[in-house]
Write a structure and sequence with these properties.
This protein has helices at 10-21, 41-47, 60-71, 91-99, 116-119, 129-142, 158-186, 193-199, 209-220, 236-247, 252-264, 270-283; strands at 2-6, 25-29, 53-56, 79-82, 104-111, 122-126, 150-154. The chain is of the alpha/beta class and 290 residues long. It folds into two domains: 2-156, Rossmann fold (3-Layer(aba) Sandwich); 164-267, N-(1-d-carboxylethyl)-l-norvaline Dehydrogenase, domain 2, CATH 1.10.1040. The protein has a seven-stranded mixed β-sheet with strand order 2-1-3-4-5-6-7, sandwiched between helices. Helix 7 (158-186) crosses helix 10 (236-247).
Length: 290
Amino acid sequence: MQLGLVGLGRMGGNMRERLRAAGHDVVGYDRDAELSDVASLAELAEKLDAPRAVWVMVPVAFTDAAIDDLADVLGEGDIVIDGGNSRFSDDAPRAERLHERGIGYVDVGVSGGVWGRQNGYGLMVGGAREHVDRLMPVFDALKPEGDFGFVHAGPVGAGHYAKMVHNGIEYGLMHAYAEGFELLTASELVTNVPGVFKSWRDGTVVRSWLLDLLDRALDEDPELAELSGYTEDTGEGRWTVDEAVRLAVPLNVITASLFARFQSRQDDSPAMKAVSALRQQFGGHAVRKP
């Protein structure tokens, strides 16, 4: 199958290579000329046979602009796929704009990171059945072998919604491992913290790919001394909590893990300064000076 691919960074570039290895004809465009197969979106469209399918894999801040630019060079019967980490609420307006030009729209939540080229990508897809069916050769090539790793989650927006929840769960799982790491390092009894995590990788109920990756990080730096605790978030955790508030669903763990990331960015928490001041005021408890 032919596919246009816009955005050839860490994810997009690896997806291009996985698709080509599976025998698909992929024409890639990137603003970095060294990565790109063509000089422009117009040239990309010219190299694809109609009806065309073009997958957009760019940072979320540039997705709308990329899709609007594509709409100018595509035509009726073509399909645009957004595989970036877009907010699900952006999908329906995009689909409507493209529908006015006779262009289909499919949203895909993609998980797998830099390992996807080798292991395959988890794909959560939203869109009309006719569009999804037409794109199945591409999805089959990108997903891992076997029965798992793909879902047609529902209509437009469902794919990114599923990926949002996936990333919210990821926040909670990561933080549980992180808290376990801190407790083990504080213990007077445990002298081989990296070994404990390695022992959990097989035969335990907490084994997972995230645990494997943490073990890999501890092999490289047993005390994580070379890393700062400052941790960014890319939006999906916030959107998950927003939805929990809207739907009155208690997401205690995911919300706490998101707030922990906010706390990681504070050199000296103003809130905890206030707590310290209150303890001093009502109980005369000792406080530490900066």
